[in-house]
Design a protein that fits this description.
334 residues, alpha/beta, Rossmann fold, 7-stranded mixed sheet, MBL, glycosyltransferase
Length: 334
């Protein structure tokens, strides 16, 4: 192969590794899939063979009831694919089990990041900068508007709201995979040792995290709470439950939402969020641009997000880049 990287091809339904006839995060069933992490816009069932980290495979089994052809690969382990392509899974820092995938073929190196963040997270290994020729980066928060504040300050605001309202509960909407567990772990790191109450939809994923060695402390279901026990307490639920019938049983809840999108006030108002918490599991603008500088690829491929602004930044900084047109990526409740 020449230096045109014709062996790696972005197509509408995923990134095709041509010599191996394998796909990264394909949007439809394929014979051989490499999956970066367990969120639904990257992980799908129905593949003949699914190659992912053990935690991602466990998440896929829990969420999508699929383990046919599961092939676990540890961080740092290299798997030889057909066509003399080597694939190495490297921590992405997004959620439990998330990985960048380093592909090596004919002396060329391509890193596909999936989703990633650069902030410390007690629930998953940190992102590792990996030098490569082509760097495939997400751009979920690829606008200068998005600069995430330190998480300690957002957790402090949550705890202050609880302390100031002993007769109310704080109801935190958080994505069920990754965000909920991170918020809980950060509360523990801030010294909050009391019971944290869960919507029933959160329990199985939290228990999966615990099986993978992530300590979340005392967790109980809201349905098991004695009458009057939830005043002054913290409750974690899926974002969709913040204002539905389920939440009406709670004592005058302060509705909070943990998401990078809470930087946009209109989004908070649309969800009737009283306490917006800017907590994201994606890289913000400064982290995206810094990562490209640190990786220093010959070319960056930008996908699923605000592609145009990051593409323009690359052009202004004399960095070769292109925007991909992949389909099937959803706007997660990050």
């Amino acid at each position: 192969m020449g230096a045109d990287f014709s062996w790696i091809r972005p197509e509408p339904h995923g990134i095709h590794i041509v010599p191996a006839d394998a796909w990264i995060d394909p949007a439809r069933p394929v014979e051989r899939a490499l999956v970066t992490h367990g969120h639904a816009d990257h992980a799908r069932g129905g593949h003949g063979r699914t190659i992912a980290t053990p935690a991602t495979l466990d998440i896929m089994l829990l969420r999508y009831f699929t383990d046919a052809g599961a092939t676990p690969i540890a961080y740092g382990e290299t798997l030889r694919l057909p066509g003399e392509v080597d694939a190495t899974f490297i921590p992405a820092g997004h959620v439990l089990g998330s990985a960048q995938i380093l592909l090596e073929h004919a002396g060329e190196r391509v890193v596909v990041t999936g989703d990633y963040k650069r902030r410390a997270d007690p629930t998953c290994p940190p992102f590792e900068v990996t030098r490569c020729d082509i760097f495939v980066t997400e751009a979920t928060f690829g606008l200068p508007l998005f600069r995430h504040p330190p998480i300690a300050g957002e957790i402090g605001r949550l705890l202050s709201a609880r302390a100031a309202n002993p007769d109310r509960c704080v109801l935190v909407g958080a994505y069920a995979l990754g965000k909920a567990q991170r918020v809980i772990a950060e509360l523990r790191a801030a010294g909050y040792s009391e019971t944290i109450w869960l919507h029933g939809a959160m329990e199985k994923m939290c228990r999966l995290y615990e099986r993978h060695g992530i300590e979340l402390g005392d967790l109980k279901l809201v349905t098991d709470a004695p009458k009057g026990a939830l005043a002054g307490q913290i409750v974690v639920c899926p974002p969709g439950a913040l204002n539905d019938r389920w939440s009406r049983r709670l004592p005058d809840p302060i509705t909070a939402m943990a998401s990078g999108w809470m930087r946009v006030r209109q989004r908070a108002r649309q969800r009737n969020v009283e306490l917006p918490l800017v907590i994201s599991d994606h890289a913000d603008w400064d982290e995206l641009t810094r990562t490209i500088e640190e990786v220093n690829p010959a070319e960056s491929w930008i996908t699923h997000g605000r592609e145009e602004a990051l593409l323009r930044w690359c052009q202004l900084h004399q960095r070769k880049a292109r925007a991909l047109a992949l389909v099937g990526y959803e706007d997660e409740d990050d």
